[in-house]
Every structure is written in C-alpha cells, then in structure tokens.
Amino acid sequence: AEAAAEQLRLYRRDPDGWRGCRSTGEVAVSWRPSAEFAGNLYKGEGILPASPQNVWECIKPVAGGLRTKWDQNVKDFEVIEAVSDTVSICRTTTPSACMRIISPREFVDVVVMKQYEDGTMLSAATNVEHPLCPPQPNFVRGFNYPCGCFCIPVPG
C-alpha cells in the first residue's frame, strides 16, 4: 500500500509526457505510456465547488461509502480485512458493460488512505491476493497496478 501511495506521488510530481485526450468544462483527462506495464496511465483532473472534506466523503474507499451511489462503474465495495486505521484489504466489483458483452469484474486491492500537512487527501491501491477472498464465480478477477485519487485543496 505504501509503495502504491509513493508511486502515485511520483506520478503527480512528474509533469512530463502527459497528453490531453478529453476535456469538458469540468474535467480534463490526460494519458501517458506506463513504465510499469504495456499500456497507458490515465489521470482525470477537475475542480469542484465544494470543501475538500465533502469531496473526500464522496470518493474515499470505505464500506458503505458514497462511491457506489454515484459511480456507475462501482457496483459494490467491501472491506475484507482492516489491517490498520489507514490500510485495508478491499474487494470492489463492477457491473457488466456493453449490453453484458463485458463480464462483471472484481478487484482485490490493498488500500491506504493518507492526509498530508497541506490538507491533501490520498487513497492509493494496488492488486493483492488474500485467502479470505478467492475468485468468485460469475466475475472476472481484475488486476490493478498502483492507482488512486488525490483530493487537493485549492484556495477559495
């Protein structure tokens, strides 16, 4: 979990190579080739007219959280094991897509939540196997490289 958090911090601090691919008035999405796997990294950025704490309540990875209510790509989120107050093993499921051509997925990750001195909040995760969460029937087991969300306060 700590390695995933550090990798996300490195992505955030390295502006090189990001190329814009989509943009609306609210969100800008960029990509760049990954140095870890044969594919691309993606990041979405936007400024929301809300306090960092209210935004964090919507995105933080906790059981019973708000993410399953607003994010159509997250069907369920459960904590398999709480390792500490800030680290947990979690299972996230996604619904089928494209008229059920794409099967539902499940992801088992170690997740860490951090808050930095400047008020920035981070959730970082990466794939892990856990004996209490073997692959489930009717789901394709997905694999996450280091991924997560930053909630960064901005003036005003």
From TrEMBL:
InterPro entries per record: StARD5/6, START-like_dom_sf, START_lipid-bd_dom
Function description: May be involved in the intracellular transport of sterols or other lipids. May bind cholesterol or other sterols.
Pfam families, alphabetized: START (PF01852)
Single GO term (MF): cholesterol binding
Keyword Transmembrane: no
The name this protein goes by in its record: STAR5 protein
Record keywords: Lipid transport, Lipid-binding, Transport
Protein's UniProt keywords contain Kinase: no
GO BP: cholesterol import
Domain START residue range list: 1-156
